[in-house]
Design a protein that fits this description.
Elements (H helix, E strand, L loop, with lengths): L8 E4 L5 E4 L1 H10 L17 H22 L6 H9 L6 E6 L4 E6 L7 H19 L12
Antiparallel strand pairs: 1-2, 3-4
Helix pairs in contact: 2-3, 2-4
Length: 146
């Protein structure tokens, strides 16, 4: 069973042609959803902004890490992959002390809770982790990739 959502990033060139980043992932999604109705939406974003970084995370970082984990034998959907990724960065782990129970509660933060700086830190942590543990390269948000 294939997932029913896919986000891709791209940019337009000076002639207005669309260049899609991670084009193979989009083509694989379409191949896995043959003979189905598809809705496409295009949205302009500025790299480096919180929305731009979120789009970069879901369109580039998450699919690359998911592919790297699959190479190691882990078959997970995007939601499961995102949970694994959150545990790789201290910025995503929120600990609160409950004085009544004398216990520390650990909770994973949401991407929407992060500032632009925190999101950049999270992405840098994932780039390091992916290089060291998955042996894969995650490009920087402003890096040109075709």
């Amino acid at each position: 069973m294939s997932e029913n959502k896919h986000k891709s990033l791209g940019r337009t060139d000076k002639q207005g042609q669309l260049l899609i980043i991670q084009r193979g992932a989009l083509l694989e999604f379409l191949k896995n959803n043959t003979d189905r109705r598809i809705m496409l939406t295009a949205e302009v974003y500025e790299p480096g902004t919180t929305n731009g970084l979120r789009a970069y995370f879901y369109g580039v970082v998450l699919p690359i890490c998911q592919k790297g984990l699959r190479r190691l034998g882990y078959s997970m959907n995007q939601r499961e992959t995102e949970k694994i990724l959150k545990r790789q960065s201290p910025i995503m782990i929120e600990e609160t002390w409950d004085p009544e129970t004398c216990q520390c509660k650990v909770q994973l933060r949401s991407l929407s809770d992060l500032s632009s700086d925190e999101l950049r830190w999270y992405i840098e942590d994932l780039q390091r982790w992916a290089a060291e543990d998955l042996n894969i390269y995650i490009p920087d948000p402003n890096e040109e990739i075709i």
